[in-house]
Every structure is written in C-alpha cells, then in structure tokens.
Amino acid sequence: VYSDNFLKQWYQRRVRGCCLDVLCVTDTSSRMITLLLVLLHAATALDNGLALTPPMGWLNWERYRCVTDCVKDPENCINAELFLTMAKHMAYDGYADVGYQYVNIDDCWMERTRNDAGLLVPNPDLFPDGVDGLADQIHALGLKIGIYEDYGTHTCGGFPGTRDHVDDDVNLFASWGIDSLKLDGCFCNATEFPTGYPLVTKALNATGRPILYSCSWPAYIGNKDKVPYGDIAENCNLWRNYADIQDSWDSVANIINWFGDNHGMLASFARPGAWNDPDMLIIGIMGSLSSRARHRWLSGP
User: Fold this and answer.
1) Which of 184, 231, 250, 261 is catalytic?
2) pTM of the model
3) 184 is catalytic
4) CB < 8 Å & 24+ apart, contacts of 110-116
5) Mean pLDDT over residues 247-259, rounded?
6) pLDDT tens sequence across 2-21
7) Where does residue 277 rank: exposed (0-12), middle (13-18), buried (19+ CB within 10 A)?
8) Catalytic pick from 47, 132, 136, 244?
9) What is the DSSP string of 186-250?
10) Residue 16 CB coordination number (10 Å)
C-alpha cells in the first residue's frame, strides 16, 4: 500500500530524478545532449499526475452494449439517464467513499457522421443536454466522467473513429469536461499503434486538462513478446492486455489464468500512474454464471 506522501514524491521525481543524472556528466556537450533527451522525453510521455493508484469506476459496455433505441428498449438503452443514475448510486451508496470515481461512457454514444466542422456529435436522443451537460451533473456529484473513442477509422460499433481527427477530438473532449478517455483499436492496423497512441498522448498533454488515458494497444497484438510495454507504460495510464471479458465463467477464468501465467513480465511495467488492465469486473451482472461458478468466484478456487 502506497502512502499519499510516497505517491506524490514518486510522481514529482519522475522527470526531476532523470535531470539529476545529467549533473553527473562532466563533459559539457554530453550534458547538454542528455538534458535535451530528458526534456524531449518529458514533453512526449503522458504527464497528467493521475492513476497513482489503480483507477476505479463503472463502465456500461458489458451490461448494456450498444443499445441505442430507447423507445423499443427503454430499460437497457445507453442514455444520459442511465449514466446519471449510476453516478448517483456511486455517490450515495458508498462507492465513492471507497475510491470509485469514474462513470464511463463506452461505444455508440455519438452520431454516425461528424458535423460540417468535422467534429463528433453526441446522439441527441441519448444525450439531449449533450455530453457536456451530463458531465456537469456528474461533476456536481463529486465524480468524474469518461468517454470512448477508437484510433481507427471507425469505432468497434461502426461510429466515427479519431483517425485524422486526434487534436480536434481530444480538444473537444477537454472542452466538455471529460476526465477519462478509453481509446480502442478497431479498424486500424496494429503496426500504427506505436505512433498513433503516443500521438493521442501528446494531444492530451497539450489540452492542459488531466484526462486519464486508457489504451487498448496490447490487446490487439497477438504475440505478447512483441508488445512494447515500456513505451505503453510511458504513454498510457492503463492498458488492456488481453481478450474482452464476457459474461461467462470460462471467460473470467481464461483471463485470470492468462494473467497468472504472465504476471512476472506484466508486473515489471506496473507502477503508480501506469497499470495493467484485465478488463471489467462482471460479478452478477446478468445472472448467467452458474451457481458453482459464482461460489468459486466469491470463495476462491
């Protein structure tokens, strides 16, 4: 368990500690080159001071998916009322008191096309006051709001991706008061991730607003030995490592086993501000887990 003082000191030393090493170089030109490299690293790495402990919150995807027709299915559609209701549960039922902060909107929140200015547009049927209006209400409860996008041409649900619109999208999210960005990797070649995800990091830094950055970078790379976890940890607050979780014990067990088999490698990259992400907890969401599976989940193997 990290103390608040330790976490603050650790973060403050992330760059300054590197700079102290420069003073040990006696040759003036070498000192200058080293200093420039340190400053360049500081300018490109994620620098938001967030996630000093693993971030916690609520995400709609596994339970509500991409249900956008609130007329046909009002009990399950992903509208502003759903997110505000969950925010109130977090604020009033004790979840916020133990560290749950983020109410996260996943895919399908936007219109199918951008507007004439090239900007993303929230679905007005789902968010009549806009995402910024919802953000104001969630912030008033003392909580934070997250949103979803995809680095590819489209999101996994077929909505506009952030390709060729990184600065516009990130600045728009900041103007709405967004506190967290989940960036997926559909409709994109994984070979583009080493430049694409850091491009978003740079844009997030430039907004001046602390926005938690959740990356799907490793999840789309089949060979774990080729995942550049060092670079990912410099650019993301957390990153999805493995397959999407599903509402079944087989899925849960598969993810647990994968992390168990690879924990030695994964743990070496985790630190305050940068965490491995095994995906959502799905305890009891739809009741499809068998009694035996639920018993094992609660009591251990």
Assistant:
1) 184
2) 0.83
3) yes
4) 110/159, 110/160, 111/159, 112/158, 112/159, 112/160, 113/160, 114/160, 114/165
5) 90
6) 444 544 444 444 433 333 33
7) buried
8) 244
9) TTS-GGGHHHHHHHHHHHHHHH-S--EEEE-TGGG-S-GGG--HHHHHHH-SEEE-SPPP-SSHH
10) 10
